[in-house]
Amino acid sequence: MLYLASKSPRRRELLARLGVEFGLIDLDIPEQRGPGEPARDYVARVAREKAQAGLAGVAGDRDALVLGSDTEVILDDEVFGKPADADDAAAMLRRLSGRTHEVVSAVSLLSHDGGHHAVAVSQVGFAELDDAVIAAYVAGGDAFGKAGAYAIQGVAEAFVTRLDGSHSAVMGLPMRETAGLLARVGLGPLAVPA
Question: Which GO molecular function annotations are given, in alphabetical order (predicted)?
Fold first, then answer.
């Protein structure tokens, strides 16, 4: 059985689009970047740790496959995680305003026999955002619970001047990479029928 180790409703929605049945594993994994750890390595490690924790939670199911994913916004080698509060969200959006940032989305698919991993990197350009726009966006609530204090699938899509990469990866689950990992274990729309 396939399990998604995530609380994210966006990841659930995206994985469901691939037409695979899956269960959910609700877990909390500490997301702390190590000293000197490269930003992309950090994102990949957190995705692996989510999948590992999920797999430990279904240890009795020898056929379990667990998908873990992490997505972070990176600007000037600084990882912008989920904002702590409204002030933090506004500060992140001010830093992203008028600049191009990187969104790294990593996926790990683990079984008791091993695993497969993939990383998608996208470049996202933002328009200049004035303080009134930032304040209104933060007040609307969409800034919370999302890396970089924005959700590209919502109102913040109007902030985007260019996207070089994967829209779904910026949402939280890179569809092409995820479908490729699932195909390697015989699941999903890219799997070759036997």
Answer: dTTP diphosphatase activity; UTP diphosphatase activity
